[in-house]
């Protein structure tokens, strides 16, 4: 990273959901490296503290906030905390998500469907509902939703996950139109298979798969885009098929 990019986000505040591991942790580290205060949101304190320790060792600033995106009151409490502590929010990265790859849809228990859709889609709605007003008042901000190529293509034995990501893409395009008049830019990132614990990768070579840092790099590009434009969607693929 160039010295210019390293300090590009100095003074800004970024909330990252699902920041305890994988893609979320990589995004948090990247934004903190660029100077932002990274507010780490997730359900597990220990994993968030681990990410925060990595950021601190690199000279960055992190704030741990345990919460659950499936619980509206929890998200609203987090938004109030951010407003009280920092008085602003510049970047919201909706990354928290779970998989659902247990077999065909007709064999999926309803409670498993609810968990996937409520985390991957309803959780993003809760976060935008709670945090967008801070950005609207400031007439500035970035919202980045982490989706998947499963939101573009069929995913046999993962229909609930695919449905949640197709829905997230439609939500992102629509909210981008709602908020662009307030100078709030909304983007969606659709990676292919990433080498994380989210889903099984049977038969795939992890050395050829996308890495969490690849997704973090795209987020960094989006939040440093020149002010007169924004990339509404990024499809991210590995160079070599894994």
Residue runs with pLDDT of under 50 for 5 or more positions: none
Order of SSEs, N→C?
A: HEHEHEHEHEHEHE
Distance between the termini: 27 Å
Give the beta-strand count: 7
Into which percent range does the helicity of residues fall? 40-55%
Which fold does the CATH topology refer to?
A: Rossmann fold
| CATH hierarchy class name | Alpha Beta
Q: Structurally, how many domains make up the residues?
A: 1
Strands side by side in the biggest sheet: 3-2-1-4-5-6-7
Largest sheet: 7 strands, parallel
- Return the average pLDDT rounded to an integer: 94
Q: For the CA atoms, what is the radius of gyration?
A: 17 Å
Tell me the fraction of residues in β-strands, as a range.
15-25%
Coarse morphology: globular
Q: Give the CATH H-level superfamily.
A: NAD(P)-binding Rossmann-like Domain
How would you sum up this structure, described in words?
With 242 residues, the protein is of the alpha/beta class. It has a single domain (3-236), classed as Rossmann fold. 44% of the residues lie in helices and 16% in strands. The protein contains seven helices and seven strands; from the N terminus they run αβαβαβαβαβαβαβ. The protein has helices spanning 3-6, 22-33, 45-57, 72-86, 110-138, 159-179, 212-223, and strands spanning 13-17, 37-42, 61-66, 91-94, 141-146, 184-191, 233-236. The chain has a seven-stranded parallel beta sheet, sandwiched between helices. α3 links the parallel β2 and β3. α2 runs parallel beside α3 (45-57) and α2 (22-33) crosses α7 (212-223). The longest helix is centred in the middle third of the chain and has 29 residues, at 110-138. The model has no long low-confidence stretch (mean pLDDT 94).
């Amino acid at each position: 990273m160039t010295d210019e990019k390293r300090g590009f986000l100095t003074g800004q505040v970024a909330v990252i959901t699902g920041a305890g591991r994988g893609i979320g942790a990589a995004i948090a580290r990247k934004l903190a490296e660029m100077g932002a205060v990274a507010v780490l949101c997730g359900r597990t304190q220990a994993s968030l503290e681990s990410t925060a320790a990595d950021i601190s060792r690199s000279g960055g600033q992190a704030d741990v906030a345990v919460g659950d995106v499936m619980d509206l009151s929890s998200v609203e409490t987090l938004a109030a905390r951010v407003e009280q502590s920092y008085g602003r929010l510049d970047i919201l990265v909706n990354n928290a998500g779970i998989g659902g790859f247990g077999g065909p849809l007709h064999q999926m228990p309803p409670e498993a469907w609810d968990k996937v859709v409520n985390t991957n889609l309803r959780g993003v709605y809760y976060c935008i509902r709670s945090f967008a007003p801070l950005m609207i008042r400031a007439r500035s901000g970035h919202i980045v939703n982490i989706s998947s190529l499963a939101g573009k293509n069929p995913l046999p034995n993962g229909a609930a996950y695919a449905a949640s990501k197709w829905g997230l893409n439609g939500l992102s395009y629509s909210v981008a139109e709602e908020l662009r008049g307030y100078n709030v830019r909304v983007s969606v990132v659709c990676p292919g298979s990433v080498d994380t614990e989210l889903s099984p990768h049977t038969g795939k070579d992890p050395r050829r798969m996308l890495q969490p840092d690849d997704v973090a790099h795209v987020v960094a590009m989006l939040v440093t885009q020149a002010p007169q434009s924004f990339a509404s969607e990024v499809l991210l693929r590995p160079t070599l098929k894994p």
